[in-house]
Amino acid sequence: MQHNSRKILGVLIATVLALNAFIAGLLGYAMLEAKARKEREVRTTVENLALLLDQSVGSSVREIDLLLRGAQNRIERALRDKGRLERDDFDSVIDVHRDGLSQTAQVRVSDATGTVVLGDQVTAETRTSYADRPFFIDHRALDDGEMQASKLLHGRISNTWIVVFSRRYNAPDGDFAGVVTAAVPADHFQRLLSGLQLGPHGIALVRDLDMTLIARWPRLDAPAGVIGSRGGSQELNEIVASDVRAQSFYSARTADGVARINAYRRLERLPAFVVVGWGEKDYLAQWKEDVGKAMLLWALFLGVTGLAAWLLYRLVDANDRANERSRILLQNASDGIHITDAEGIVIEASDAFCRMLGRSRSEVIGMRAGSWDACHPEPDMRALISELFASSEVHTFETAHRRKDGSVYPVEVTAFPLEVDGRTVLFNSARDISARKSAEAEVRKLAYFDALTGLPNRRLLMERLERAQASCARQGTVGALLFIDLDNFKAVNDTVGHQEGDRLLVQVAAILVRCVRKDDTVARLGGDEFIVMLEELGGEGREAAEQAAAVGSKILAALNQRFQLGSSEHRTSVSIGVSLFGELADEPVDEPLRRADMAMYRAKLGGRNAVCFFDPSMLADVRARADVEAGLWIALEQRQFVLHYQPQVAADGAVLGVEALVRWHHPVRGLVPPGEFIPLAEECGLILPLGRWVLEAACAQLAAWADDPWRSRLVIAVNVSARQFLHEDFVAGVVAALERSGADPGRLDLELTESSLVTDVDKVSEKMEALKALGVGFSLDDFGTGYSSLAYLKRLPLDQLKIDRSFVRDILVDPNDAAIARMIIVLADNLGLRVIAEGVECEEQRDFLARNGCSSYQGYLFSAPQPIDALEAFLDARRSRPAR
Predict the structure, then answer these.
(1) CB 184 within 8 A of CB 269
(2) CA atoms within 13 A on the CB side of 715
(3) 60, 128, 338, 450: most buried by Cβ count inside 10 Å?
(4) What is the pLDDT of residues 661-681, one digit of tens each?
(5) Are the beta carbons of 364 and 357 closer than 8 angstroms?
(6) Are residues 738 and 602 in the same domain?
(7) Which SUPFAM superfamilies does the UniProt entry name for this protein (predicted)?
(8) Calpha distance 867→660 (Å, rounded)
(9) Looking at residue 554, which CATH number applies to its domain?
(10) 871: domain range?
(11) Are residues 430 and 472 in the same domain?
(12) Is residue 26 included in any domain, yes or no?
C-alpha cells in the first residue's frame, strides 16, 4: 500500500506541474496575442490620423496656391496693361482671400532682382531681398508654371520661422519679372496638430526633409522641441532616407523619453512629413493590468490544483487502508450500508456511508445513530432501534442525515434485523434522495425564478410584495418599489443580436443585486424590465422616499458604464420609476407596481437616465399616451400623415433636391411635430408601415415631377430608420414602390443612420448594392455623432455624407466643431463622396462651409420644411430668379 501511495503521489505531482505549465503557456500566449492585436489597432489609428493631417495640410496648400495663381495673373495683367506694378493691383487679389488667409499666410511680391516691393508688412523703408533664397533662384532659372514650397526658413521680415510658397511672374515679353510668395508661419502647422486627441503621452510633429522641426504637439521644453532644430530618432532617419511614402514604426528612444508607435507620412504638397505617435504607456496600460490579473489567476490556479492533488492523494490513501480493513461490506455498494448493534452503535460501515456523512471510516465506527440523524432526538432514536430489533420485517422510512460540516440532506433508510455469528445486528441501507428533492426544487425554481438571470420572477415578486404589505401594516413601516427599464434596449438587440442582449441583461441583474441590501428583492418581470423591492425603509413617507431615491441614484451610477457586447462597446442607462407602499391600508397588491410603472415612463419621457417618483398627474399622462398610440394607427388608416419637404441647395443658390419629412395632420390638434410621435411609433412598431408609406409617397411625388423638365432633375431624400432598413423585405419594398409609381430610381436618395450600418456590414453592403444597381443613391445621415468607423465608410457604397446640425450650430464659435466639419469635408473629398451640411441658419455658417469646400446646404437660411404646394411655389420663384 505504501508503494502504491508513493506512485500515486508522483503521478499527481507530475500532473499538477504539467497542467500548470500548460496554463502558464496558454496565458502567456494569450497576453502576447492581446499585445500584438493592440499594437496593430494603434498602428491603424495613427496611420489614419497621419493621412488626415496630410489631407488637411493639402487643403490649406491648395487654397494658398489659388491665391498665388490669382496674384500672379493679376500682376502679369497689370504689367501688360500699365507697364508697372501698383499696390492696388496686389491688394485687389489679396482681399478676395483675406478672411480665409489672414491667420495663415502673409503675401509679398519681389521684383526681378529679388527686392521685396509689395505685401504684408512691406513699406517704402523695407530693404529685404529674396535674391539668395533657393526658391527665387529656381524660379528665375526655370519657368515651369508650378508653385514651389520651401523648407523651413527664418523670415527676414516677420522675424519668425516660416514655410514659403512661391510662384514666378513674367514680364509682357515672357522674361522673368519676379516672384509672388505666401509666408506661412510655423504656428499654423502647430494649430493643425493641436486638434488631435492622442492621449497623455501622444505626439504629432511636422519636419521638413532635412529633419528640421516645423511644428510639434504637445510642445517640448527642451532643445529637441525648439522650432527650427534638427533631430529625430534613428528609426525616423532611416525611414526618411528610404524615400518611402508612408510607414509605421516603433521608437523606444525619443527626445522626451516616451516609447511610442508612430506613423510617418510624406506630405503631398510640401517638402516635409508628419509623424503621429501614440505613447506605449497609454495603449498598453490596460494590457499590463490584464497581465497582472493573468499572473494572479495562474498563481491561484497553481494553489488550487496543488491543494486538490494533495486532498486527492489523502483520499486515495484513506481508501487503500479502508479496503484492507473491510471484511463484511460490499465496498462498491452505491448505498450507504451501515450495521449497528442493539445500542445503535456502528460496528461496520461501507465507504459510501462514510462519504455520505463526510467522515472517515475511523470516525464512523463507534458512532451512535443519534449523532448523524437530524430528525430523531436520542430518546426517539433508541425507541426506533428497539422497535426495529423486535420486528422481523423490513422497514423503510425517510429521515435526514447530518454531515460532519453540519449540512443536512434527505435520505431513505431501509432497515431489518440480521443474525451474524450468533449475534443480532441491524442492517441499514441509506439512500440519498442527489435527485428527487432537487427535482422538486428545480420545479419550484422554474415556477418562481427567471430562467435567464436567476432572479425572482413576477409570480414570486407578487407573493413577496403581498407579504411585505402585510408586514408594513403590522409594524407601521413603509417600503418602496423601483421599476427599472433599460433605455434603448431594443437598439442593442437590433445591432448586436438577442444573444448579446441576453448577456447584457445578466450583467445588469448582477449589478442590481450588488446595489441593494441582502434582504431586499431584485426581480425580473420580463424583457428589459426589473423590479427592486425595498422593505422596512422607515415609519413615514419622506424618510422612505429619501432612502429609495438614494438607492435609485446608486443604481443609475452603477449602470452608467460601457458593456462589451460582441465586438463593440455599448453604453447603457436606465429609467427608474419609484412608488411607495404600506401607507394605504388594504391596497391591492398590484397597485404599487402599476404606480411605479407609470413613474418609469415619466422618467423616459423626461429624457431617460433618471429617477422619477409617482405623482397622481401621471395617470392622465398615461391615458394621453395611450390615446396618442391609438391615434397613430387611426392616422395611418385614415391618411392623416402628410409629407413636408425641405430644399437642399448648392452654393450658387440652385435647388438640388428636397428632403421628405413626415408630419401628422391631426383632425383636432392640427399639425403634430415628429418629435411627439416618431419615438412612440418606434416603440409600438408603427415605424415599419409608416416608413413604407413615406417611401411610397415620395416615389409618387417623383413620378408627378417627371414631366416637368426642371423639377424632374430634383432628388428626393427619404429618411430610413435602422429597424426599417434591417427588415428582411426592405429591398423588395423599395423596388415595389419604384415600380408602382414609375419614379426614376436615380432621383431617390435614401438617408441611413449609423445604427443601420454597425451590424453585419456584408449584409448591409449587399442590400445597398442591390438598390444602387437600380440607380438609388445613399447618404449617411448625422455623420460623426455615432459609431463613425472609417472601415465601413470604405466598404459601403455611399454617395454622400451629411454634416450633422449639432456641428453646424456652433461652427463659428466652437473650434472643435469647426475642426470636425473640416475633417468630414476632407474625408468625403478623399473618399470621392459628396458632402452636405444640414441646419444652416445664417450666412456666416454658409460662408464658412463654402470656404472649406462644402458646396451643398440645407436649413432655415434657405427654407423651412413646407407642404407640397408651398414647395412648388418656392421652386418656381427660385427658377425665375437668376443664380447669384
Answers:
(1) no
(2) 20
(3) 338
(4) 999 888 888 888 887 788 778
(5) yes
(6) no
(7) EAL domain-like, Nucleotide cyclase, PYP-like sensor domain (PAS domain)
(8) 10
(9) 3.30.70.270
(10) 645-880
(11) no
(12) no
- The verdict on 287 and 336 lying in the same domain is no
Whether 811 is in a domain gets the answer: yes
* Per-residue b or e along 150-172, where b marks 16 or more CB atoms closer than 10 Å to that residue's CB: bbbbebebeeebbbbbbbbbbee
> How many CB atoms neighbour CB 685 within 10 A?
11
Instruction: Please report which confidence band the pLDDT of residue 3 belongs to, taking 50, 70 and 90 as the band edges.
Output: low
Position 114 in a domain: yes
CATH assignment at residue 807: 3.20.20.450
List Cβ neighbours of 212 (8 Å cut-off, separation of 6 or more): 151, 152, 228, 229, 230
Query: Is residue 471 predicted with pLDDT exceeding 80?
Result: yes
Q: Which of 85-89, 280-284, 361-365 has the lowest mean pLDDT?
A: 85-89
Together in a domain, 685 and 824: yes
As a whole number of angstroms, the distance between CA 54 and CA 829 comes to 13
Secondary structure, 3-state, 785-831: CCCCCHHHHHHCCCCEEEECHHHHHCCCCCHHHHHHHHHHHHHHHHC
Q: Which residues contact 157 (CB under 8 A, 6 or more apart)?
A: 106, 108, 116, 121, 122, 126, 128, 183
Same-domain pairing of 219 and 293: yes
Under 8 Å between Cβ of 624 and 847:
no
Q: Are residues 368 and 249 in the same domain?
A: no
Out of 248, 271, 297, pick the residue that ends a domain: 297
383 and 485 share a domain? no
For residue 195, give the CATH number of its domain: 3.30.450.20
Beta bridge partners of 751: 719, 779
Give yes or no for residue 497 having a pLDDT over 80: yes
**Which grid coordinates belong to 239?**
525611414
**Element at 475 (helix H, strand E):** helix 458-475
DSSP H/E element including 262? strand 260-266
Is the overall model pTM greater than 0.85, yes or no? no
Q: Using 50, 70 and 90 to split pLDDT, how confident is the model at 884?
A: very low
Q: Indicate if the pLDDT at residue 5 is higher than 80.
A: no
pLDDT of residue 590 exceeding 50? yes
| Confidence (pLDDT) at 537 | 85
Would residue 4 count as lying in a domain? no
The three-state secondary structure class of 364 is helix
Total count of domains within the chain: 4
The DSSP bridge partners found for residue 527 are none
φ, ψ for residue 624, nearest 5 deg: -65, -40
Q: Are 698 and 748 in contact (CB under 8 A)?
A: yes
Better pLDDT: 694 or 441? 694
CA–CA separation, 334 vs 329, rounded Å? 11
**HSE value, Cβ hemisphere, 13 Å, CA-based, for 269:** 19
Percent of the chain with pLDDT over 90: 30
**Residues 566 and 668 occupy one common structural domain:** no
Name the strand (E) or helix (H) holding 715: strand 715-720
